[in-house]
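Subject: sequence -> structure tokens, single chain

Hey, anyone have a minute? Need the predicted structure for the following. Not urgent.
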Amino acid sequence: MSNLPVIIQGGMGVGVSNWRLAQAVSRLGQLGVVSGTALDQIMVRRLQDGDIGGHMRRAFDQFPFRRMAERIWEKYFIPGGKAESQSYPTIPMHTKDGPPETRELCILSNFVEVFLAREGHSNPVGINYLEKIQTPHLASIYGAMLAGVGYVLMGAGIPMRIPAVLDHYVQHEPASYPLYVAGAKEGDDTTMSFDPREHMEGEAGPLQRPVFLPIIASNTLALTMVKKANGRVDGFVIEGPTAGGHNAPPRGKLQLNEAGEPQYGERDVVDLAKMRELGLPFWLAGSYGSPERLKEALAEGAAGIQVGTAFAFTEESGLREDYKRTVLEQAKEGKARVFTDRLVSPSGFPFKVAQVKGTISEAEVFQARPRICDLGYLREAYRTPEGTVDFRCPSEPVTVYVAKGGKVEETEGRACICNALMATAGHPQVRNAKRVESGIITSGDAIGEVAEFLPEGGSSYTAADVVGRLLNG
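Reply:
Had a minute. Here:
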């Protein structure tokens, strides 16, 4: 834990915090972080697009399990890329004990993203996961560790059982993780297991145990992690409700403002004096992307800050170029806005949505999309009447969700965040050779401040511009 980064680049989901962005930030001596969400889908779609730039091939060639890499390459790579009207293939959705292919895609895709982010420098790289998306965890983390990931960050849940997974993988030992199953009864088997040696092709030396940083929003959760986690917790990222992406729900009775956004109060403010008492490093997140807020965080005893929004609109990020241009223009004109939507995400967590024309932030775009759930990352595991584990999503067709025991009111206002975020990262699904999925842009409340990173007269900025301004003013 020596040489702690002052700036952690946020692990913004589904391809926005890609390897290019993480590499750029880590080269500057700060902590670049790739998003670990849906990397299997991202990798397959890059292969279908023809592996532009040859980066996938370069990483595949360094993967230690050669037969696995070639099997996946031969199945998904299209020389020159697919036709514009052609759909991306549907890969198997994750389940409690899914087919080997789902695990292989996770292992390889997480390796690829971390390998590319680490390429060309010797500084650490991190990966960010959502605890809520549980089924890919075990295979994904192993793949990231194969590539030498230096930090694992995890939010959107209580990752009590991750430390032991990291410990086991150092020696390629089997690991397990409890799957939350709605309606589960005592004696039900809800444990997921993963044995690296079922996928290894020969012996391998020990792996590096990454630093583990839970992303938390309360002192209670921090204390619980320190006391009850099944292994070492190395520090915390303390994320406030102004941060982008999924937010922790407000504590206490839900109250909404006039626009329908959940309201946060004093109970949602983390007591930093108590955090200091834990004796572990912490970073502050949520509208800390300015030199003044960095100084404030350091004065409070933080090791530094985590910054997402400012990095999301850099040249290196995976956000679609047309979306970047639109938001930057909005910011320059003082018109950039986000809405904290308590309903849109199937996860049940509030989700910050930038208001951008042509995305599903527009009611007509949202309403025009048929309910289709074919990626399934935010599905909920539930116990069937027969005692088995199945999955349902509040964003799937309402009749299907209700038939699986879901409540119809839980489907209100829900969007397919999975498909929308894939579109935001530049890989929109094409349906029936004509209908293209629309994106959704998530950002923190500091969206209006991103124009401050633009060079005078410029229309874009880089990760180096962000780091330089934060550190030097």
